[in-house]
Amino acid sequence: MLTNISNVLRACVQRNQVATVLISARTYADFTTEATFEIKKCDVHKLDEAPATQVVLTRDEGLQYYRIMQTIRRMELKADQLYKQKIIRGFCHLYDGQEACAVGIEAAINLTDHLITAYRAHGYTYTRGGTVKQIMAELTGRRGGIAKGKGGSMHMYCKNFYGGNGIVGAQVPLGAGVALACKYQGKNELCVCLYGDGAANQGQIFETYNMAALWKLPVIFICENNRYGMGTSVERAAASTDYYKRGEFIPGLRLDGMDFLCVREATRFAADHCRSGKGPILMELQTYRYHGHSMSDPGISYRTREEIQEVRSKSDPISLLKDRMLSNNMASVEELKDIDVEVRKEIEDAAQFATTDPEPPLEELCNHIFYNNPPIEVRGTNPWSKLKSVS
Amino acid sequence: MAAAVTRFFLRGAGSKVPNTGVSTRGHSSFGATLLKLSPSCNVRTKTQRRHAAHFTFQPDPVPTQYGPTQKMNLFQSITSALDNTLANDPTAVIFGEDVAFGGVFRCTVGLRDKYGKDRVFNTPLCEQGIVGFGIGVAVAGATAVAEIQFADYIFPAFDQIVNEAAKYRYRSGNLFDCGGLTIRAPWGCVGHGSLYHSQSPEAFFAHCPGVKIVIPRSPVQAKGLLLSCIADKNPCIFFEPKILYRAAVEQVPVEPYTIPLSQAEILQEGSDVTLVAWGTQVHVMREVANMAQEKLGVSCEVIDLQTILPWDTETVCKSVVKTGRLLISHEAPVTGGFAAEISSTVQEECFLNLEAPISRVCGYDTPFPHIFEPFYIPDKWKCFDAIKRMINY
């Protein structure tokens, strides 16, 4: 498991180790290297066992995950800023508030496992191995973007990460298909298939539940329930808000999606379930988005400022981890601050890159429509020269 | 060539966006802000210039035949049409994602409060369900106005529209129909909508006998045509050019009125080239007609097709008989676009009258691009160039 964790962190692990070593040299003996925490119990559906409620967190893990969550948070805040400056255009859905989900899930699966999500994809792109630079440059539509600057906010991809899907709920059947391939290839891999509480009402989700259970596919369906499908609260949109039970014949778990440890423990449990050949499992992560649905939704017309403030002050995923580490003497305020400073610098550098990197060349307009060799001509308006499509 | 393109974008053809009417206080919305940002770019930064509008909205003369008028933009004229419908038709209901709050483009603002939450209500995020449900509402005799949040999201409902709605009358031997169903959806490019908020899918539905497809060019047209669609005894798809929601402002009659479907409108008479378009592209065509007159001395006849299916072949063919040349322009990709159908019909009807091959100036055969939108759009320069070619043929 520890190797997995460091895999997740390969983007920043090196710098982190340096930091750790420096700090260790100074105060290593003073810190607790690991501690056991009591976490909230999961609600279960059709399961005899439940994920453990006592989990161990080591100091190194804590620091690493703190850094990742902080990176995602800062990246989203920067994106917010760039959007308001009209440097990022198009649609942009921010992930701040939900960091514990992406990080907790990634900590419990392998990088060789597969993951697919909807349009709120920046956090997952990062945990799956994308760099902040690539993500920011994609947001601004520049050459160095993770999808060559062609997709923008909703369309980000990297190895074993299938995006970044703009149409509500459309990624769920795809995820089951990926799981079928995993099963067929027999590599003991699984697919994590994410969707929101809004998408949970789409018909194709239920079609997918059926196929996944029928064929016992190694897929973890994860409903990130952030309480609002755009501007509509879950109570107004769903006849049953027990999203973890809506797979009916698929076992389910409901847990606190604001607590990184809860998410990690439950995902480990779910991954074991899948890998042991028992078929799909469903998880509902109860989480919260601080921003509106997208950049043009101020997010306060269908919920109160007080509600957002309360979540921020009482169950912020980053503060929660930070408090745990500090109160158990697993880290010092200073070293966490150092991490913050480093993260901020990384984000600033990435933003700098994303605003100065050139835009993709015009040829890119027509590339990658079909697989074709030799290049095909793409028909367009007749006055301009026809463009070649290369793939 | 690239330089020419760049020059055009640097011009920054800013159309005015008046902030009249409905306040976006409280529930501002995704679409609304999107629109606020796109057509008018006063702050001249590098990133904004390339998103300058590719057209200038040209209002029609104030209509006098329908009583008192009021200044409205396109989304307000839609609201006005829906308001009239709810007031006059006790069976009318309006539903869709977030419509109870006014919808992301503010088209249904205030209607829930005025007519009650049993008549204007939110649905879950399930397009297939929304349309299927709408068919049921309509087949039982009520008037259903369903909103799909973006035309790009209509595809989950494709089966319901094509197989259920369009064929209901035919397959039941006229025993059942869902003529009371109207599906509204924001449509077309908006400046920076990227792949899933910019498409123009009218051609997909034009292949389906049994549904009517209507696309207005202005607030006055929008209200009259929408009321016609709602009153029409066939299921209708009403696509609203979302870039015009705020950019287009006209004096719109307050009382209900209808504009006949399947009737194209000749906006400007001419003798040399017929220009056919619908929605936003009509305004590009008007500008092109002026350019052709000024720079080439070419007289263009501009036609707004308005109804895509069933379309007005007579008006178009008569015009081509007169001018001998036809240019059709739409934002959707050229291959299989509705321009192809028009072109084919016109060459059958007017073969001996044609002085030049029919021109289509349309989007590239690519997915709707993100940052390449300015290149992709069939703008006035591309259309102008096509006219030159036709004249010199």
TrEMBL record, chain A:
Record's catalysed reaction(s)? N(6)-[(R)-lipoyl]-L-lysyl-[protein] + pyruvate + H(+) = N(6)-[(R)-S(8)-acetyldihydrolipoyl]-L-lysyl-[protein] + CO2
Q: Which Pfam families match?
A: E1_dh (PF00676)
Task: Report the EC code(s) recorded for this entry.
Answer: 1.2.4.1
- Provide this UniProt record's keywords sorted from A to Z: Carbohydrate metabolism, Glucose metabolism, Magnesium, Metal-binding, Mitochondrion, Oxidoreductase, Phosphoprotein, Pyruvate, Thiamine pyrophosphate, Transit peptide
One GO biological-process annotation of the entry reads: pyruvate decarboxylation to acetyl-CoA
At the top level, the lineage of the source is: Eukaryota
Listed InterPro entries? DH_E1, PDH_E1_Alpha_Subunit, Pyrv_DH_E1_asu_subgrp-y, THDP-binding
Keyword 4Fe-4S on entry: no
The cofactors named for this UniProt entry are: thiamine diphosphate; Mg(2+)
The Dehydrogenase E1 component domain sits at: 69-362
**Any GO MF annotation of the entry:** metal ion binding
A GO CC term? mitochondrial matrix
Location of the protein in the cell:
Mitochondrion matrix
Task: State the top-level EC class.
Answer: oxidoreductase
- UniProt function note: The pyruvate dehydrogenase complex catalyzes the overall conversion of pyruvate to acetyl-CoA and CO(2), and thereby links the glycolytic pathway to the tricarboxylic cycle.
Protein name per its UniProtKB record = Pyruvate dehydrogenase E1 component subunit alpha
TrEMBL record, chain B:
The UniProt catalytic activity note for this protein reads:
N(6)-[(R)-lipoyl]-L-lysyl-[protein] + 3-methyl-2-oxobutanoate + H(+) = N(6)-[(R)-S(8)-2-methylpropanoyldihydrolipoyl]-L-lysyl-[protein] + CO2
Q: Which InterPro entries match?
A: THDP-binding, Transketo_C/PFOR_II, Transketolase-like_Pyr-bd, Transketolase_C
Where it sits in the cell: the answer is: Mitochondrion matrix
Query: Which Gene Ontology cellular component terms are annotated?
Result: mitochondrial matrix
One Pfam family this chain carries? Transket_pyr
GO BP term, example: branched-chain amino acid catabolic process
SMART domains on file: Transket_pyr
Where's it mainly located?
mitochondrion
Query: Membrane: is it a keyword of this entry?
Result: no
Q: Which cofactor does it need?
A: thiamine diphosphate
| Alphabetical UniProt keywords | Mitochondrion, Oxidoreductase, Transit peptide
GO molecular-function terms, A-Z? branched-chain 2-oxo acid dehydrogenase activity
| CDD domains assigned | TPP_PYR_E1-PDHc-beta_like
Domain Transketolase-like pyrimidine-binding: where?
72-247
EC id: 1.2.4.4
Function, as annotated: Together with BCKDHA forms the heterotetrameric E1 subunit of the mitochondrial branched-chain alpha-ketoacid dehydrogenase (BCKD) complex. The BCKD complex catalyzes the multi-step oxidative decarboxylation of alpha-ketoacids derived from the branched-chain amino-acids valine, leucine and isoleucine producing CO2 and acyl-CoA which is subsequently utilized to produce energy. The E1 subunit catalyzes the first step with the decarboxylation of the alpha-ketoacid forming an enzyme-product intermediate.
The UniProt subunit note reads as follows:
Heterotetramer of 2 alpha/BCKDHA and 2 beta chains/BCKDHB that forms the branched-chain alpha-keto acid decarboxylase (E1) component of the BCKD complex. The branched-chain alpha-ketoacid dehydrogenase is a large complex composed of three major building blocks E1, E2 and E3. It is organized around E2, a 24-meric cubic core composed of DBT, to which are associated 6 to 12 copies of E1, and approximately 6 copies of the dehydrogenase E3, a DLD dimer.
The name under which this protein is listed is: 2-oxoisovalerate dehydrogenase subunit beta, mitochondrial
Q: To which species is this protein native?
A: Monopterus albus
Lineage start = Eukaryota, Metazoa, Chordata, Craniata, Vertebrata
